[in-house]
Design a protein that fits this description.
Number of strands: 12
Oligomer: single chain
Radius of gyration: 21 Å
Helix content: 25-40%
Shape: globular
Structural class: alpha/beta
Number of helices: 20
Strand order of the largest sheet: 1-2-3
Length: 440
């Protein structure tokens, strides 16, 4: 295959990964051996999702019904199927993308004029928000529980990654938090019964609120290709499609891989890498000036805007010129605006600090703002992996002695520590459609 011309996105992918590789102080032989092992692990080694069926949402589904499906299935996102295509072996015709719960809430906020009117109408909707769901809020609603439904690979296959996915089996824990946490039920009954939410379809917002391209792999693809998509190429999940059949068979997520790595503790290759201080591995892969943060006295809308503009899922909340960390907010926290009427009615003037305090007041037993996950530069990669896996979060903040934020380590960064991209691997293993969507 001829070398494709590289676009702006591919340049940023390459720059990120070149930075990672240049900063890792690991024996080249170890990296080559481990990368070769991942290249021999087929995706088919992963078991199917629990229940054997992936939840899919037709593109002509209303936003309200999509929220209901996500809520009832306890999932955060689902692939969107083209209802106009009955059968084809081409996944590009079958699937239009992935709809995410957070993306729906972002859209709701941007259409908040109508939603605010609905809430202020004094109907059952206004009193329904938060009445049932707010009382059940806790660590789950903050995204702090719920390990992925995963299964490790065999020892012969290195066992360095696991399968996770969207399941049709109601009540199963999914990738990171268990999705809408029944919040969607109130959300659906309250706001999404009003126009324009009632008649707006998933397809109409899918393109504007897409966080990442939809790029599946075949069941006979290698685990290395999946890990590269989840790290270098910044995908959060990779659909698995059986060759000759365009239906999705599985999802492999960043979180599932981290849980899999945590299970590899005690194996020589893992311990050899994870015993290193994060500073020796070049972590974090950014300078302090590159950290996107939000001051506690800024508006919460500014925080969510920064996340959307920078395509990131969370921010450290800091105070003062030294950026001392006092909390964190994530894209999932947007749903609190819709759970509590007092938040939603004032969200345009609500500060980040007030937002965090209000959330904390809904948490049983503590009533305190949950401390953000942090680490010091001399901590080991193994301890960071344990912290990320046990807390089921997507990032940990690196802080100095003064508790000032100096960096962020994401799931993507951790996965990148274990692999590199062999020469010409992209051209040989990714088809034209994938290259086009990734910006090549």
């Amino acid at each position: 295959m001829a070398q494709a011309s590289k676009g702006p996105k591919s340049t940023s992918y390459d720059a990120y990964f070149e930075n990672v590789q240049s900063r890792k102080m690991l024996p080249q032989s170890l990296q080559e051996t481990l990368t070769a092992a991942f290249a021999r692990i087929p995706v088919s080694s992963f078991p199917e999702v629990p229940g054997g069926k992936v939840i899919e949402i037709p593109a002509d589904t209303s936003i309200g019904d999509a929220v209901r499906v996500l809520s009832e299935s306890n999932i955060m996102s689902a692939p969107v199927r083209n209802p106009d295509i009955e059968y084809t072996t081409d996944w590009r015709e079958t699937y239009l993308g992935i709809i995410d719960y957070a993306a729906i809430v972002l859209w709701v906020l941007e259409t908040a004029g109508v939603a605010a009117a609905a809430l202020s109408a004094g109907s059952a909707a206004a009193t329904g928000v938060g009445a049932g769901a707010a009382g059940t809020l806790g660590a789950i609603a903050l995204g702090a529980t719920g390990p992925a439904a995963i299964a490790g690979l065999t020892v012969a296959a290195v066992g360095a990654a696991v399968a996770g996915g969207l399941s049709a089996e109601k009540g199963m824990a999914k990738d990171a938090p268990t999705a809408a946490d029944k919040l969607g039920e109130d959300f659906y009954k309250v706001i999404l019964q009003e126009e324009p939410f009632k008649s707006t379809t998933v397809k109409s917002i899918l393109k504007s609120y897409r966080w990442a391209p939809f790029i599946p792999v075949a069941t006979d693809s290698s685990m290395l290709s999946v890990l590269l998509l989840l790290s270098k190429y910044r995908l959060r999940n990779v659909p698995v499609i059986e060759t000759g059949n365009s239906s999705i068979r599985n999802f492999i997520t960043q979180s599932a891989v981290i849980h899999g790595l945590e299970r590899c503790k005690g194996r020589d290759w893992f311990d050899c890498i994870s015993a290193n201080p994060i500073s020796k591995l070049g972590l974090p892969f950014m300078t302090p000036d590159e950290v996107v943060s939000v001051q506690s006295d800024e508006l919460i809308l500014e925080a969510f805007k920064k996340m959307k503009d920078n395509q990131i899922g969370g921010l450290p909340v800091v105070e003062g010129p030294k950026k001392q960390i006092v909390g964190s907010v994530s894209i999932r926290d947007i749903r609190f605006l819709l759970l509590k009427p007092e938040l939603f009615s004032s969200f345009r003037v609500l500060t980040v600090k007030d937002f965090m305090n209000t959330i904390a007041s809904a948490i049983p037993h503590t009533g305190k703002v949950i401390r953000p996950l942090t680490c010091k530069p001399d901590e080991t990669l193994g301890s960071v992996i344990h912290a990320l896996a046990s807390n089921s979060v997507h990032r940990i903040y690196v802080v100095g002695d003064d508790n000032g934020v100096t960096g962020v380590i994401t799931l993507r960064d951790v996965i990148s520590c274990f692999i590199f991209e062999p020469p010409n691997f992209f051209d040989n293993y990714f088809g034209f459609a994938a290259q086009e969507m990734l910006g090549y």
